[in-house]
Amino acid sequence: MTQPEQAGGPGASTTEAGTAPAGKHRALLQVERLSKLFPVRTSLFGSPRLVQAVDNVSFYIRHAETLGLVGESGCGKTTLGRVVLRLVEPTYGRITFEGRDLTLLSQRQLRPFRRQMQIVFQDPYASLNPRMRVGDIVAEGIRIHDLARGRSGVRDAVARTLESVGIPADAMNRFPHEFSAGERQRIGIARAVAVRPSFLVCDEPVSALDVSVRAQVINLLIDLQQGQRMSYLFISHDLSVVRALCHRVAVMYLGRIVEMGPTERVFAQPRHPYTRALLSAVPVADPDRHRLRIVLEGEPPSPLDPPEGCAFHPRCWKNDHAECMARIPTLTETEPESHHRVACWHPEA
Amino acid sequence: MADTDRHVLVVRNLATTFRTERGIVRAVDDVSFDVPTGGKVGLVGESGSGKSVTALSILRLIDDPPCRIERGEVLLEGRDLMKLPERELRRVRGDRVAMVFQEPMTSLNPVMTVGAQIVETIRAHRNESRSQARDRAVHLLRRVGIPAPETRVDAWPHELSGGMRQRVMIAIALSCSPRVLIADEPTTALDVTVQAQVLELLDEVRRESGTATLLISHDLGVVASFTEHVVVMYAGRVMETGPVRDLFHNPGHPYTQALIDGLKALTRPDEQGPFAPRKLPSLPGRAPDRTSLPRGCRFQDRCARVFDACREQEPGMRSIAADHAARCWLVGGESI
């Protein structure tokens, strides 16, 4: 595996991609050089090959902050979300949550952290157990983590949680199939926030929803964040949703972060050609505004057979430089203190 | 309006019902619109609005029972498809009018090579030899931008990516140079960068071969950037129809307005300054239960501008300007 040139060791300086500024903006979560390799059998005989689904990824998330993680299918964003929660074990790297390195903990030691780190899934049809009543789905975490006393205590906690996501408390005796997609996604959010987490991985939580319902769920996530000071890792392929909700954005391509920075900067001045192409592919609201659309050639390469050098070079329009084909560019800050980082040998101006 | 010289496809008063355990659902309820010859029309609506059932009803591709086309006319080049015997209809499907579905993973036959699937379609409609049809298949694959079509013609569907499979679907749809291409959410299952490629391809095909396109999508943004004329559906009804510019600058129906507001809030064109999450305009509630529809307008419970008349009687389509009409009491014009 070709390693990129690295400016310093993990956490060596404040310009390192994964390091949050010190002081009052202390990071809640810090991920350093995280990698996940999966063995994949490509033929019946012969030994499995390794696929690098997440490749040397570093980032941080502050308290009450949302980091948007954007990329196309197969780029590793879902795997990254699960590795961060140790739902999938990382191959290398460090995950520091509230000062503790989660990768060093046993499953038993991890349990109190499980309460603090929850996940909301994409598919509101597949992610709720159809045989459990809504009340039991939401109560499960409360019971496991012993957050309420007695049956009536659990019941009250469930009712409060449901109401906080805009579902009437009497829904607890009903089954998931009695609800619409948007309501189910609220129930999925209620299940996650019932244990009062400080960090939520939202894996495409609105992608399966209709436009009018999508806005309701985004607004709910904004309300919950402001009320409970939660941090989100918001995974999405939809840039317009990310722009509405996320303080910072990270763009992923073939397992690596290729650009990361404050939302307004990345959207106004995308530096990576891939980010530019992604932004230009978003349909515009106004039929009169015909934006210059960059239509990329080809499709994302297979992670089984990644290109040499920069993974984006076969689709890039400035790929006629020797280094693009030879070496993986490092994620480096575009200007000092901008917190805007790009991994490109020839970034856009 | 229904002049079949200018309009290759004319849909009039189409109504399709579903029989369910809870009663009869009017999935498509008195739907009318036209597709101009060589034009591009978008049909927008949320899930359950009846847009896909409209497409399937046009080709009579729905299962009876439980579904039933109750009434309506579908004039393709002046011929009413609703009155054709099944045998003749089969000659029209895939030849004069073709369809591209949302799921490129499930709509190709997994046990046939892509070439064989194109050849099958050509030979069903044209008196061509296998080798002639195969040559045409290679040509079509090249036409839809598949690299190395001479070898890919023998590829199996599972060997292709989602974007490539959707291109193959488009190649099959184009194999007999149809007059109308119905594309039902053709890009929904694809990644954004590939979505742009497929939309571009559909438009290119339309410009070059004069095939009219009916694009069905839940995404008003996709429809706005691709089509010239938009039909907005809600709960089985057409709520508004008009040229895309008129619809955006002067929407007549509060539902259309809400869709546009939602889209604009998401794209936030030229916002300056540091970011703070901001709430989006949203519609309260959800679409009505289709087995027990309210009296009056179907949008009344979610409408910010609802008043007495809306709960009394459902408005008809009322004219706003030439070719632009909405099903709303707030629109001043005559009922049409």
Description:
The complex is a heterodimer of chains A (349) and B (336). Chain A is an alpha/beta fold and 349 residues long. Chain A is 29% helix and 21% strand. Chain A has helices spanning 77-84, 107-116, 134-144, 150-164, 181-193, 211-228, 239-245, 263-268, 273-281, 322-326, and strands at 27-40, 49-62, 66-70, 92-97, 100-101, 117-120, 199-203, 231-236, 248-253, 256-262, 332-333, 341-342. Mean pLDDT of chain A is 87; it is low at 1-16. With 336 residues, chain B is α/β, with parallel strands linked by helices. Chain B is 32% helix and 24% strand. Chain B has 11 helices and 12 strands. In chain B, helix 4 (130-143) packs across helix 6 (162-174) and helix 6 (162-174) runs parallel beside helix 7 (192-209). The longest helix of chain B has 18 residues, at 192-209. Chain B is globular and about 65 Å long.
- Please tally the helical runs of chain A, counting DSSP H or I stretches of 4 or more residues: 10
Level-2 CATH architecture of the largest domain in chain A: 3-Layer(aba) Sandwich
How many structural domains in the coordinates of chain B?
2
**Assigned CATH superfamily of the largest domain in chain A:** P-loop containing nucleotide triphosphate hydrolases
Give keywords:
heterodimer, A: 349 residues, Rossmann fold, 2 domains, 8-stranded mixed sheet, 4-stranded antiparallel sheet, 10 helices, 12 strands, globular, disordered N terminus, B: alpha/beta, 11 helices, 24% strand
